[in-house]
Design goal:
about 375 residues; nine-stranded parallel sheet; eight-stranded mixed sheet
């Protein structure tokens, strides 16, 4: 297949014009290509969006540990231009996490592709558990992680921990050799956070949310993560989890290469208002609400998707290139999948999204196949 007359963003995320040939699920060549093809004049071509932190949407949740739920998530994400994702678990029992890992690792998607598994917890701080179930919060051990790693067939890409909640140095040093260790749901101070980074942590889970804040006398996790160029930081860009002014400041500090847009969405995303389940707890989406909440009003998760967040960022004043990288190549880099996905480049997966002039989705291709 050849896409003709494409206005696209190349591997350097600069605008370019030309043709793109797809063969065997990959981008075969880019340039002016002879032969007939599909005319894509008037559209904007970008890489497929990547969501590395998503619990669910469309009625499905990764923690259901069911192929039916993964079908719902995968299909819904494909419609919104998300071509790869990391199903994300909650803080649950060891037995349930083992089942989740086995189910996801063996799942064959017909929509958005699974890029790996994200474990949000269970080795977090009770004081910053947010909507996580406190009954299952526990100290981290390399032994438990290794059991989950084996159940997942080595497909765990991310794990969130609170480094101050247990003797975590050895854990971080060991686990960071297998997947990206992220700091989140944590009450760590700046010194404890910096030590975790020095041990190998390279990621911040939903920056500003469920972590110690940056003040003028104590950087906390938020300030420490923003300041350290070794770290990539997740941002929920629904306009509710983080206000646009703070988002602009965060992007100024993170630059083009360190911001990672995530949805952190739950099963109610795309279903409107109602009552839903998240990690064994009752959550609510109110009429006109920007996110889901527990009964006491605690923010539980988002109800957005990466495409909406991308458009939000443009409306908030983030430049197109920075916003696009934060939704594509940066998340791919965060989970070490950037050699396969995340940009329009010869040899990479043909995960492509065609937008109109309003940045609305017209067509989505996953491995070169129309979704």
């Amino acid at each position: 297949m050849i896409f003709k007359n494409c206005t696209f963003y190349n591997e350097f995320f600069e605008k370019e014009f030309g043709d793109i040939e797809i063969e065997n699920e990959k981008i075969k060549q880019i340039g002016i290509i002879e032969g007939e093809g599909k005319d894509m004049s008037g559209l904007i071509l970008i890489p497929g969006f990547i969501d590395i932190h998503i619990h669910g949407c469309a009625g499905g949740d990764a923690s259901d540990a069911s192929e039916q739920s993964l079908d719902k998530i995968s299909g819904e994400l494909a419609r919104h231009g998300v071509t790869s994702f990391c199903p994300t678990s909650m803080t649950l029992s060891h037995e349930k996490l083992m089942k989740i890992c086995r189910t996801i690792s063996s799942y064959k998607s017909e929509g958005s592709k699974i890029a790996g598994i994200n474990l949000e917890g269970p080795f977090i701080a009770m004081s910053k558990k947010g909507a996580q179930n406190g009954d299952y919060v526990r100290e981290g051990t390399v032994k438990e992680f290794d059991e989950l790693w084996q159940a997942a067939d080595g497909k765990i890409k991310l794990i969130t921990i609170a480094p101050e909640a247990f003797d975590s140095d050895d854990f971080i040093e060991n686990v960071s050799q297998k997947c990206t260790v992220s700091v989140g749901h944590s009450n760590a101070n700046a010194t404890q956070c910096k030590k975790a980074i020095d041990c190998g942590a390279r990621h911040a889970t939903h920056l500003f949310n469920a972590m110690t804040a940056m003040t003028h006398r104590e950087a906390g996790i938020a300030g420490t993560m923003l300041d350290d160029e070794r770290v990539m930081c997740e941002l929920i860009c629904d306009g509710g989890h983080i206000c646009p002014t703070v988002l602009r400041n965060a992007f100024d500090m993170l630059g083009e290469d360190r911001a990672v847009v995530i949805s952190d969405s739950m099963r109610g995303a795309g279903l409107g208002s109602g009552e839903f389940e998240l990690g064994g707890q009752q959550v609510f989406v109110r009429d006109g609400g920007k996110y889901a909440v527990l009964e006491d009003g605690t923010i539980a998760a988002s109800i957005t998707n990466i495409h909406k967040e991308f458009k939000n960022l443009i409306s908030f004043g983030i430049d197109f290139k920075t916003a696009l990288k934060a939704c594509t190549i940066n998340p791919a880099r965060a989970i070490k999948e950037d050699s396969k996905i995340g940009s329009i480049q010869k040899g990479k997966c043909a995960d492509l999204v065609f937008l109109d002039e309003n940045l609305d989705i017209k067509e989505v291709y996953i491995d070169g196949i129309l979704a």
